[in-house]
Write a structure and sequence with these properties.
2 domains; 364 residues; 76% helix; two-stranded antiparallel sheet; mainly alpha
């Protein structure tokens, strides 16, 4: 490898991160590249969670002792791990491995158990720590923010690729939405249910839509590899990374449809469904006025029930559009072709990157 190859390799690796495909970097690992990069955030969270040792049932001086004890346990755990690895007690880890992650999860969870017998708090802390590590791995390990930025910059082109599907799906979608929107049962169902059940239903719609998208990701990634004609096949981690790019690109399209439908029914419902009509649909249950807007020379009322029903209609529409994406073969082919064209430069840089690495290995 020549002296000019090293800067070029570093430039290509930075380009992979900006494009949302950090797994294209060879020897990319969670130990050295993911959790180590997130070490400052994890350290801050770990220090804040020493507050788990506090228990408001006890006097302030007892909580001070608990806090000092929790800090001593946390510091001792990391220091002991450093001593086992024959490094200084307070040295900063150069790599975040299994030991550091185990301490990050276990120690904050043990503190409420040791200093107050709060086993529920301990269990919740374990789940929250694991969820945080999963989020860090998703954001850093797969370049989530970079993927969103990459997909957002190309959103118009990708939406154009799905224009045929949108035109075919829109008439049936609007017909279904309009018929259900102006029914008494629909308003009673969404406006009278408790908030927690309503939120659970919205999450269920989102989960089902996500599941439909995930089911087609493997075939889409395989189609993208065929379209790109890669000389070196993608590894499993790289396929997952590309799959996440495809998933977010399609999720942004569904989000656009959901927001458009929601906005349409918010405006349409505010204009056509007066508070008196809404009251009759809800069996005399008084509506809650959220906002007054001056529209067409009158003060139009936006009610909480209208927001709920419009959101429910938009969520159902998003689920329908996600299903349409899965079952429409023409859309899948057009979408994969469009993403392949957009990622062709990234694939070309991957070929150059692998060639430079191969030359470096030959020199060694």
């Amino acid at each position: 490898m020549t002296d000019s190859d090293a800067p070029r390799l570093a430039e290509l690796e930075r380009g992979f991160r900006r494009a949302g495909v950090p797994n294209f970097i060879e020897e990319y690992s969670a130990r050295s590249d993911v959790f180590t990069r997130a070490l400052p955030v994890l350290t801050l969270v770990f220090l804040l969670e020493t507050l788990n040792a506090l228990d408001l049932k006890y006097a302030w001086w007892a909580n001070v002792l608990f806090l000092l004890g929790g800090a001593a346990i946390a510091l001792g755990a990391f220091g002991g791990l450093n001593m086992m690895r024959h490094v200084r007690f307070l040295s900063r880890p150069t790599r975040v491995g299994t030991g550091e992650l185990a301490i990050f999860v276990v120690v904050p969870s043990l503190l409420p158990l040791i200093f107050g017998g709060q086993w529920r708090s301990a269990a919740v802390t374990v789940l929250l720590q694991l969820a945080l590590l999963a989020l860090v791995y998703l954001v850093v390990g797969f370049g989530l923010f970079s993927i969103v930025r990459w997909a957002g910059a190309r959103f118009e082109q990708q939406l154009r690729a799905s224009l045929v599907l949108l035109v075919r799906a829109l008439p049936l979608l609007l017909f279904f939405a309009l018929v259900t929107f102006f029914t008494t049962e629909f308003w009673q169902m969404f406006s009278t249910v408790s908030t927690d059940r309503y939120a659970t239903t919205m999450v269920l719609f989102a989960a089902l839509g996500t599941l439909f998208l995930l089911l087609q990701i493997p075939s889409n990634v395989a189609g993208l590899e065929r379209e790109a004609g890669l000389s070196v096949p993608l590894t499993r981690a790289q396929q997952w990374n590309v799959g996440l790019v495809l998933f977010i690109s399609q999720a942004l399209q569904i989000l656009f449809v959901v927001l458009a439908v929601w906005l349409f029914f918010m405006v349409f419902g505010a204009l056509m469904a007066s508070p008196a009509v809404q009251l009759s649909w809800m069996n005399g249950v008084h509506s809650v006025h959220v906002l007054h807007l001056p529209l067409l020379g009158t003060r139009t009322r936006i009610t909480a029930e209208l927001v709920r029903v419009a959101t429910g209609t938009a969520a159902l529409s998003g689920l329908y559009y996600a299903v349409a994406m899965v079952v429409d073969g023409n859309y899948r082919d057009e979408f994969v072709t469009k993403v392949t064209d957009q990622m062709r430069e990234t694939f070309a840089r991957r070929g150059e990157y692998l060639a430079l690495l191969g030359r470096a290995n030959q020199d060694v």
